[in-house]
Amino acid sequence: PDGVEKSYDAINQLLDAAGLAGAYPVKKGSPPFQFATVVEPSEGVDFIIERAMDATKEKPLWIVSIGACTNVAMAWLKEPAIRDKVVVLWHGRTHWPRKCINFNVFNDLKAVRVLFGSALPLVLFDTGGYLTASMEQTQEWVAAHGPLGQYLHDVRKRNDWFQRDIKGFYDLGDIAVLVDPALAESEVVAVPEVNWEMDYLHTYKLGKMSRIYQIRNRETWQLLSDRLATFARREVRPSL
What we know:
Radius of gyration: 18 Å
Shape: globular
Number of strands: 7
Structural class: alpha/beta
Number of helices: 8
């Protein structure tokens, strides 16, 4: 129930650590679906619609969903016209082609069912479970990359699981692919339906999607390290 507030606070903490407090709009999203077709209003959903309606089919808005796809699904239900103006990249890491199972699905299965049935242009990021790092590796960021590196290392101290060598920085892959698409391998597949047991149903009636099934591990970590180092030197500052 407090996931929306936790996500909002986490984004602001990250911006503070990067010295970018207030530099980007941060909106609170909607709670998980209670009913499969009822929109829970939020400023986050309205923000997606606003930005999408300013886009075009030729220059679409890319929506990157690295958690539950609640806000994307609700934005489409509230304004179906965004279908021709967006591309959705959703972090899945599922058990393709059998099961649509991961933490993001557990958090809002209704949203997943809406997303796959929406005909929104979809890229499924379905890999990256091996993007892991040891505590020693992230400790190196502290010295090399200033307050932002310190923040990324300190996040791991929140519980014992985060400190294990097999703990992944999985969402890193989604962003890395956007920065350098050559890092990934993908395929075009039929969009499956997802049932209440989280099975993929390959009915071949929902169109096509792109499925990213591989991302280069070493090169992805190197990209993050390079970008952190550049940012620490403040040679390049992000812009809206």
